[in-house]
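Quiz preparation item.
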C-alpha cells in the first residue's frame, strides 16, 4: 500500500519504526506513518490511532471485504488542517511490523500502544503534553486502558468501543441475526437462540489467549478510572457493538467523577461509521459503495480534539 502524502495533502507523511520491548517474548518493531500538518508550527498536538480486533494495517483497511475502506487515513487527513499530527501503525504481526499475535491479548496491545505514546513524546515535532488516543472497536477498549494508567494522556476518543465483557458482546452478535430475521416463528427463533447460546458457552479450553481474555474482560472498571476528556462516537445501526453501550460507558465515567464526557450517536451509521444500506448488518458491508468516513463523523471528531488539545496547551 502507498502511505505517502498526496501532493495536495495538508500534511507531510513519513515512515517510522517504533521499538516494542514486551514484558514477555522478544523485542520487535512496529512500522507505520507519522503525518505532520503543513499549515502549523511545531510542536504539534498529536493523535495516536488504535485499530480494531484482528490483524490490521495502519489505515484499518478491511481488504478484501471492504477494499477501499481506510478510516484512519481519512481521520489523519481531516486532523491536519486543525494542526494535529497523527501516528498510525501496522499492528504487531501485520507485516512489515514485527512481533507475533499468536499469544497476544488486549493487554499486550495496550503495551504496544504505550510504546507508541512513549515514542511520540520524545519527538521534537510533538508537544508531549498534548497527545490524544483515538481507538475504533477493540481500539476503543485499549485506549482507555492506557489512559487510565497514564495521566499524561491529554484526551481519549472511543469509536464503537464496548461497555460489556466480551462474552456478552458475543451474545449480542450471536442473537441479533436471529431476533431480526423475517419469516421465522417465535418457536423457531427460541430454538435457534438456544442453540446459538449453547455454542457460545461450550467448553472454552481450546480458545486462543486473545479470545479467552476478551471473553472475560469488562471495560467498565477501567472506564471509571479515566479522568481525561472523552469523546464517545457510536453508530445507531452498529450490530457488532450495540449502540446502548456508548451511554453505558459515558454514565460509568461521569458517575466516577469525569466531568468532560461527550457522546455522539449517528442514526444512519454502522460499526464502520459508514451509512448502512439497510439494517447495519456486517453481511452488507461488502455492498457499501461510499467507503470514506462521512463529514458528520470527521467534523465533530476534529473540532472536539482541536478544542481539547488547545485547552491543554493553555
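Solution:
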Amino acid at each position: 500500500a502507498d502511505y505517502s502524502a498526496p501532493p495536495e495533502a495538508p500534511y507531510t507523511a513519513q515512515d517510522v519504526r517504533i521499538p516494542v520491548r514486551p514484558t514477555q517474548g522478544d523485542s520487535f518493531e512496529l512500522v507505520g506513518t507519522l503525518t505532520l500538518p503543513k499549515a502549523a508550527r511545531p510542536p504539534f498536538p498529536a493523535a495516536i490511532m488504535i485499530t480494531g480486533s484482528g490483524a490490521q494495517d495502519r489505515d484499518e483497511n478491511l481488504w478484501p471485504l471492504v477494499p477501499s475502506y481506510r478510516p484512519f487515513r481519512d481521520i489523519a487527513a481531516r486532523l491536519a488542517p486543525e494542526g494535529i499530527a497523527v501516528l498510525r501503525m501496522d499492528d504487531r504481526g501485520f507485516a512489515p511490523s514485527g512481533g507475533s499475535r499468536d499469544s497476544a491479548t488486549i493487554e499486550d496491545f495496550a503495551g504496544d500502544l504505550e510504546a507508541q505514546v512513549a515514542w511520540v513524546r520524545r519527538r521534537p515535532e510533538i508537544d508531549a503534553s498534548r497527545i490524544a488516543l483515538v481507538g475504533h472497536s477493540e481500539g476503543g477498549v485499549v485506549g482507555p486502558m492506557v489512559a487510565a494508567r497514564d495521566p499524561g494522556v491529554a484526551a481519549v476518543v472511543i469509536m464503537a468501543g464496548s461497555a460489556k465483557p466480551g462474552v456478552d458482546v458475543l451474545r449480542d452478535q450471536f442473537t441479533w441475526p436471529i431476533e431480526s430475521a423475517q419469516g421465522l416463528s417465535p418457536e423457531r427463533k427460541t430454538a435457534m437462540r438456544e442453540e446459538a447460546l449453547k455454542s457460545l458457552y461450550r467448553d472454552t479450553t481450546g480458545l486462543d489467549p486473545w479470545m479467552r481474555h476478551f471473553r472475560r474482560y469488562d471495560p467498565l472498571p477501567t472506564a471509571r478510572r479515566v479522568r481525561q476528556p472523552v469523546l464517545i462516537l457510536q453508530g445507531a445501526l452498529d450490530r457488532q457493538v450495540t449502540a446502548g453501550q456508548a451511554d453505558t460507558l459515558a454514565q460509568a465515567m461521569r458517575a466516577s467523577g469525569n466531568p468532560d464526557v461527550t457522546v455522539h450517536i449517528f442514526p444512519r451509521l454502522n460499526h464502520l461509521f459508514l451509512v448502512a444500506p439497510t439494517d447495519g448488518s456486517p453481511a452488507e458491508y461488502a455492498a457499501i459503495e461510499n467507503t470514506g468516513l462521512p463529514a458528520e463523523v470527521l467534523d465533530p471528531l476534529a473540532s472536539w480534539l482541536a478544542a481539547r488539545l488547545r485547552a491543554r496547551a493553555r
